[in-house]
Specification:
heterodimer; A: 285 residues; alpha+beta; Alpha-Beta Plaits; 2 domains; 4-stranded antiparallel beta sheet; B: 220 residues; alpha/beta; Rossmann fold; globular; binds adenosine-5'-diphosphate; binds magnesium ion
């Protein structure tokens, strides 16, 4: 309680004595934290898209013309028993024609008297099959099956997409580390100014037997508060950006509550850490 | 109570601020630490206050052996010491009362106890009427008495003063010395460092006289 009062007094003092430094620190942390925030937002949304992409991933197994019903049933059984295949949907030659017509309009291929499209199985697969090696061996296995003409597994797009997502995540982590380090530095610098401004009082405190903790606490909390406010404002701005993009470009999902808390806590911690370093150095301990 | 044993303090290899100084101070005793400017008075007080460490020799104070006192225990030691500076060192945005309360506050004492002790200490040195004044509103003599009240607020084992009259006129200096003597009569153990050798000898207290870092005279 006393610490709280002392801290508030110290903060009011600091904002009166060095308003530009306090204001500037908050703004700098706000803007700096925006960068890892945006990366986080991007990574989250790309991961969501990737998940959707994965869920809709199918392997199309085209059959040779005029495969008999019996063979189709036998093949269906074989396919269903494969590891990683959760469902199998059969499209007859007629279905294939309807599918094409649906996407391209009535008149296409209308004039042909003969249906050139092959029958196919569409395999719904789970994540395990999406790994490059298992995917390759599945395709190889399917291609070797009797009655199978061609196997189409359009997974490159997924790989490319995952690649981009991974790079963004990795780059985001690097950015986050850099921003956190500079945040610590900024907080340390501001708190150093604040405690230097209070040098005489700090000396008197030491003379009358104040513990290190007692002297350091208000300054460490000051640093923490700067980080907290800067990052909280950063989160608000991030939310506004998210809304703007959602309304005008693509629908984005925002960070969930836990992530927002983690984001803001990071700001609190980096502010406190910087302040801790500054006060320790000042008190020569 | 205070035991200073063969204490030497060197700064670099050229300056010897204190040279083989030894003396003891009983509980309830008072001494003036005299000597010209540069004799080593402040250095000795700083060593007792554990602001610095002797080059050789040992200092012990009540239960504290300063040579073995870890850094983390320094605040604890200082809560059992009172220190008065030449330049008062009051916190300007705090009232006299709040300044005196500081040592009790940092020691985490209860508010009621603080109020009681601060009142007592301020009455003891005669500045209770000035309790709501800010340091800039106080005369030099008053400011130093507030600083003295702060130094005795925690009922220290030992009260140290370094040139407490350095910023005061003759009348105020004598009054302040008398005040130290009065506190001593009431039981305080006191060391007052001063270069005013003549005035110090007026009070019939023990005189520890330093010359160039050597304890030349120890007169009871
Ligand atoms: N921190 C220091 N570094 C170097 N020399 C010092 C330091 N403190 C004191 N001295 C020297 O030690 C001697 C004693 O100083 P001091 O204890 O301040 O004397 P006094 O208080 O009696 O005037 C002086 O010669 C002074 O210059
Ligand atoms: Mg001196």
């Amino acid at each position: 309680m006393r610490y709280l009062i002392k801290t508030i007094a110290e903060i009011r003092r600091a904002s009166r004595h060095q308003p530009l430094s306090i204001f500037g620190t908050i703004i700098t942390i706000l803007l700096a934290m925006l960068l890892p925030g945006l990366f986080w937002l991007a990574a989250n949304n790309l991961t969501a898209v990737e998940k959707k992409l994965k869920a809709n991933m199918t392997v199309d197994v085209f059959l040779v013309d005029d495969t008999s019903q019996a063979k189709i049933e036998k093949l269906r059984g074989e396919l269903l028993s494969l590891e990683g295949v959760s469902d199998v949907i059969f499209y007859s030659e007629r279905d294939a024609l309807f599918k094409i017509r649906e996407s391209f309009g009535q008149d296409i291929i209308q004039d042909l008297d003969d249906n050139p499209l092959p029958a196919s199985f569409s395999l719904v697969v789970d994540d395990t099959v999406l790994e490059p090696e298992t995917a390759d061996s599945l395709v190889a296995h399917l291609s070797a099956l009797d009655q199978v003409e061609e196997v189409v597994f359009a997974r490159e797009i997924l790989y490319r997409f995952s690649g981009i997502t991974d790079s963004i995540k990795r780059f985001g982590i690097v950015i986050a580390v850099l921003v956190i380090l500079s945040g610590i530095f900024i907080s340390a610098n501001t708190v150093r100014v604040a405690i230097t401004d209070r040098r005489e009082v700090v000396e008197i405190m030491q003379v009358v037997g104040a513990s290190r903790t007692y002297i350091m606490t208000p300054f460490v909390l000051l640093g923490g508060l700067l980080g907290l406010i800067g990052t909280a404002l950063s989160a608000v701005l991030l939310r506004l950006i998210d809304e703007y993009v959602s309304n005008n470009l693509v629908e984005l999902q925002f960070l969930n509550l836990h992530e927002i808390i983690a984001f803001i806590l990071t700001g609190l911690l980096l502010g406190m850490l910087g302040a801790l370093l500054a006060t320790r150095k000042f008190l020569k301990i | 109570m205070l035991e200073v044993k063969e204490v030497t303090k060197e700064y670099g290899d050229r300056i010897t601020a204190l040279s083989n100084v030894s003396f003891e101070l009983e509980k309830g005793e008072m001494a003036f630490l005299t000597g010209a400017s540069g004799a080593g008075k402040s250095t000795l007080l700083r060593l007792i206050f554990r602001e610095e460490f002797p080059t050789s020799g040992e200092i012990s104070l009540g239960p504290y052996n300063l040579a073995e006192l870890p850094k983390s225990k320094i605040p604890d030691l200082r809560r059992h010491l009172g220190y008065v500076f030449q330049d008062f060192r009051l916190i300007s945005e705090r009232t006299a009362f709040e300044n005196v309360a500081l040592p009790l506050e940092v020691a985490g004492k209860a508010l009621r106890y603080i109020r009681k002790r601060v009142d007592e200490a301020m009455k003891q040195v005669g500045v209770w009427q000035r309790r709501n004044s800010y340091p800039r509103q106080l005369s030099g003599g008053e400011a130093q008495r507030v600083a003295l009240a702060r130094a005795i607020a925690n009922e220290p084992l030992l009260l140290l003063a370094d040139e407490p009259t350095g910023n005061l006129d003759m009348k105020n200096s004598r009054d302040l010395f008398e005040l130290f003597c009065k506190l001593n009569l009431q039981g305080a153990t006191v060391i007052v460092a001063t270069h005013q050798v003549a005035m110090a000898s007026e009070f019939g207290k023990r005189i520890l006289h330093l010359e160039d870092g050597i304890l030349k005279q120890d007169k009871k």
